[in-house]
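Hey L., structure's done. Input below.
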Amino acid sequence: MKYAFIREHRNEFGVARWCWLLQVSRSGYYHWFKRPESRRAREDRELLVHIRRVHLENRRAYGSVKTWRELCDRGVACGKHRVARLRKHDGIEAQRKRRFRLTVQNRNTAPCSTQSSAPAVRRCAARSHLGG
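Output:
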């Protein structure tokens, strides 16, 4: 994490100063910087492309389990927990549909704007003597 921060902000103060501030060695930073990407990171990046494609093709409605099943049906080998981890890390969430509710105004109640605030004051006063 420190090395990634240094890489992102190295143009502001330079690598040497960031390494001194974050108490890491410059040689360790450069060793990390020149290291090739790991096989797992490369596979995760490739799998994330498939996950994003499934997510968009299904109108952002699928969660991690349905996404995993869809990937398995397409022949992409992966685990459901790995799919869930990558989705969470990338901020991919299913869009939940709101339930349709029909609101009907009751004929016996007055609109909220015409009610006086006196009953609310009385309710607050009644609670105060109970100690809460």
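Helices lie at 2-13, 15-22, 26-34, 39-57, 64-73, 80-90, 118-128. The two ends are 48 Å apart (CA to CA).

-- N.
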